[in-house]
Task: inverse folding
C-alpha cells in the first residue's frame, strides 16, 4: 500500500519536475533526436547481417537467414579476402601502436625541455599543423613524394633510391611491402604533433616540488623522467592507451582508401575498406553488415577489456 | 640562475635539436609542395628541386584559378563549412548545456546515451543504408545528417559545468529562465571553449571527404576534397590532354591545387591555434 503510494508520488514528482524544468528538455531534444536518427537507428540495420536483404522489402521485411551471411563471409567466396583484411587490420594497428604511440610522448617530453618560450611555441605550432589538413591533402602529398615514375620522381623516392633503401625501379605505391610503413609514417606525420598536446599538459601539471626533491637527492635528468615525469603522466598515458586499443579495429578507413590500390590489397586491405567494397560498391549488404557487426562487437569488447584491466591495475578508467 | 650540470646541458641541446628536426620534417612536405607548384617543368623533372623553387612560374595557379570546377567545389565547401558548423554548434551547445544541468532527471543515463556513440557505432554498411533510406543525397542532407560529435559535446559540457554556480543562482533570483541562463550566462562565459569546438567542427566540415563522395548524387554539389581527390587521381591525364606545350609539370599542377585547398586553413591557423590547445586541456578526455 505505502509502496504504491510512494511509486505514485515518484512519478508525480517526475511530472512535476518536467513541468517546472521543461526548458531543459527542449534544449536536450535536438541532440537526442539527432542521435536517435543518425547513430541509434542504423543499429537496427545490423539486423540485415542475419537476413537476405532486399532493399525493396526493407530491413524488417527481408527474409531471415540466421548466420548464413557470417558463414558466407568467413567461409565462403569472400573467405580469403575477409581473413586477409582481418589480419591486416591487426597488423597495421599493431604497427601504429608500437611505432606511432610513443612518438607524441617523446615529443611532449622534448617540448617540456625547451626553455625558450618562442622556440617552443613555434615548433609546437608547426608540428600541430598537419592534423588540420585533410586526409585527401596529406595522402595526396605523400603519394606524390614517394611516386617513382618515368617523367618525374618524388623527392622522397629520390632520396630512398640514393640511400639504397629501395631499388631504382621500385614503386612504393604499387608494391605491397611498402604499404604498412607508408601508412604508419603518414599517420605519425599527421597526428603525432597534435597528440603531444595532451601529454604536454600532463607533464606541465606535475608538481615542481617533486623535481626539486629528486634534485636534492642528486638525481640526474633521465632519473627525473623515469621517476617523476612518467609516473606523473601515467593516468593520461593509460587513458590514451585504452582509447587506442578500443580503436584498434576501426583504423581510419579514409586514409587506407586514399593510399591503397587494387595491386596491394594483400597487405593494405583492412576490414573497413573490405566492408565498403563488398557492401557499398558491390551491393552485397548482408555480408557487409555481418562484417560491420563483427567489427563493432570486437571493437567494443576491446574497449571494455582494456578499461577493466586498467581499472583493476591502476584505478584509472574511462567510466 | 642555477648552473646546469654537463649532463643537463647535453640533454638540453639534444632536446632542441630533435624538436627542430621534427618540426622541419613536419613542415617540409608542405613547403616542398609549394616550391614545386611554382617551379618550371625542366627544373622539376631533372630532380633539381629539393626545397627552393627554380624557374619560377605561376602558370599552374592560373590554370587552377581559371578552372570552373574548382570554384564550384570551393563555393560548395564554403557552404558546407559555414552552414554545417552552425548546425553542429546549435545541436551541440544546447545538448551540452542540458547534459550538465543539475535539474536534468536521469542525467547519468542521458550522458551515457551520448558517450556510448563514441564506442559503439552501427558500422559503415548500416549507416550507409540509413542515409539512403533517409534520402541523403544532396546539400541539405549532408548538413543535417553529419557533424555532431560526442567528443566535442563533452568538451562543451565540461566547460559549461566549470562555470561557478553563483552566477546561475544570482540570475535565478532575478527570475531568469533556463533559456536565458543558457544564452546570457553560459554562452558568454565559455567563449574560448565554444571557439575551440566551432573550429573543430569547421575543420572537419572543410576536410570532409568520404561520405560526400559516396552520397552526393549531383557532381555540381561536390565539395573541394572530392574534387581535389578526383584531380589527384587524374591529373596526369588532364595534363597530357592540354593542347599547348606547358612550361610547368603535371605535378606542379597537382601541388598548386593542393596548396589552393589549404590556404584558408593556413591563413587562420596561427590565430586560432592558441584556442585549441586550451580547449583540449579544458575538456579532458574523461566521459
Result:
Amino acid at each position: 500500500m505505502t509502496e504504491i503510494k510512494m511509486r505514485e508520488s515518484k512519478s508525480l514528482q517526475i511530472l512535476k519536475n518536467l513541468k517546472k524544468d521543461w526548458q531543459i528538455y527542449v534544449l536536450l531534444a535536438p541532440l537526442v533526436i539527432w542521435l536517435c536518427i543518425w547513430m541509434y537507428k542504423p543499429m537496427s540495420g545490423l539486423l540485415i547481417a542475419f537476413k537476405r536483404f532486399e532493399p525493396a522489402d526493407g530491413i524488417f521485411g527481408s527474409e531471415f537467414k540466421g548466420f548464413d551471411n557470417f558463414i558466407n563471409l568467413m567461409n565462403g567466396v569472400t573467405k580469403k579476402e575477409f581473413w586477409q583484411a582481418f589480419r591486416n587490420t591487426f597488423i597495421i594497428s599493431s604497427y601504429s601502436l608500437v611505432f606511432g604511440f610513443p612518438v607524441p610522448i617523446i615529443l611532449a617530453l622534448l617540448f617540456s625541455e625547451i626553455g625558450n618560450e618562442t622556440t617552443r611555441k613555434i615548433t609546437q605550432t608547426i608540428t600541430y599543423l598537419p592534423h588540420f589538413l585533410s586526409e585527401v591533402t596529406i595522402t595526396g602529398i605523400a603519394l606524390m613524394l614517394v611516386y617513382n615514375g618515368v617523367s618525374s620522381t618524388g623527392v622522397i623516392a629520390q632520396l630512398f633510391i640514393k640511400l639504397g633503401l629501395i631499388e631504382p625501379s621500385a614503386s612504393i605505391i604499387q608494391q605491397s611491402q611498402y604499404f604498412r610503413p607508408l601508412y604508419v609514417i603518414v599517420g605519425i606525420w599527421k597526428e603525432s604533433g597534435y597528440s603531444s598536446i595532451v601529454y604536454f599538459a600532463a607533464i606541465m601539471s606535475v608538481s615542481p616540488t617533486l623535481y626539486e626533491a629528486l634534485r636534492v637527492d642528486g638525481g640526474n635528468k633521465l632519473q627525473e623522467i623515469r621517476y617523476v615525469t612518467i609516473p606523473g603522466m601515467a593516468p593520461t598515458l593509460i587513458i590514451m592507451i585504452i582509447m587506442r586499443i578500443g580503436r584498434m579495429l576501426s583504423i581510419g578507413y579514409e586514409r587506407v582508401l586514399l593510399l591503397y590500390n587494387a595491386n596491394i590489397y594483400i597487405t593494405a586491405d583492412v576490414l573497413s575498406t573490405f566492408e565498403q567494397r563488398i557492401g557499398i560498391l558491390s551491393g552485397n549488404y548482408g555480408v557487409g553488415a555481418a562484417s560491420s557487426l563483427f567489427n563493432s562487437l570486437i571493437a567494443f569488447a576491446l574497449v571494455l577489456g582494456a578499461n577493466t584491466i586498467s581499472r583493476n591495475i591502476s584505478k584509472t578508467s574511462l567510466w | 640562475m642555477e648552473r646546469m650540470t654537463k649532463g643537463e646541458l647535453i640533454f638540453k641541446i639534444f632536446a632542441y635539436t630533435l624538436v627542430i628536426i621534427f618540426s622541419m620534417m613536419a613542415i617540409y612536405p608542405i613547403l616542398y609542395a609549394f616550391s614545386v607548384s611554382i617551379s618550371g617543368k625542366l627544373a622539376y623533372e631533372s630532380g633539381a628541386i629539393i626545397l627552393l623553387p627554380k624557374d619560377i612560374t605561376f602558370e599552374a595557379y592560373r590554370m587552377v584559378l581559371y578552372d570552373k570546377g574548382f570554384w564550384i567545389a570551393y563555393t560548395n565547401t564554403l557552404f558546407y563549412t559555414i552552414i554545417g558548423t552552425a548546425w553542429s554548434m546549435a545541436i551541440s551547445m544546447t545538448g551540452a548545456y542540458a547534459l550538465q544541468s543539475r535539474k536534468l532527471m536521469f542525467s547519468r543515463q542521458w550522458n551515457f546515451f551520448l558517450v556510448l556513440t563514441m564506442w559503439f557505432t552501427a558500422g559503415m554498411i548500416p549507416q550507409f543504408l540509413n542515409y539512403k533510406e533517409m534520402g541523403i543525397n544532396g546539400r541539405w542532407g549532408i548538413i543535417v545528417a553529419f557533424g555532431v560529435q560526442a567528443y566535442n559535446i563533452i568538451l562543451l559540457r565540461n566547460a559549461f559545468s566549470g562555470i561557478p554556480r553563483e552566477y546561475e543562482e544570482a540570475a535565478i533570483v532575478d527570475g531568469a529562465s533556463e533559456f536565458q541562463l543558457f544564452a546570457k550566462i553560459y554562452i558568454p562565459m565559455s567563449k574560448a571553449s565554444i571557439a575551440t569546438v566551432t573550429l573543430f567542427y569547421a575543420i572537419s566540415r572543410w576536410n570532409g571527404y568520404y561520405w560526400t563522395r559516396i552520397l552526393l548524387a549531383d557532381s555540381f554539389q561536390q565539395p573541394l576534397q572530392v574534387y581535389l581527390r578526383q584531380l589527384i587521381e587524374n591529373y596526369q591525364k588532364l595534363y597530357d590532354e592540354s593542347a599547348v606545350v606547358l612550361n610547368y609539370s603535371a605535378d606542379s599542377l597537382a601541388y598548386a591545387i593542393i596548396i589552393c585547398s589549404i590556404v584558408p586553413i593556413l591563413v587562420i591557423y596561427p590565430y586560432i591555434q592558441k584556442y585549441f590547445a586550451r580547449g583540449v586541456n579544458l575538456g579532458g578526455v574523461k566521459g
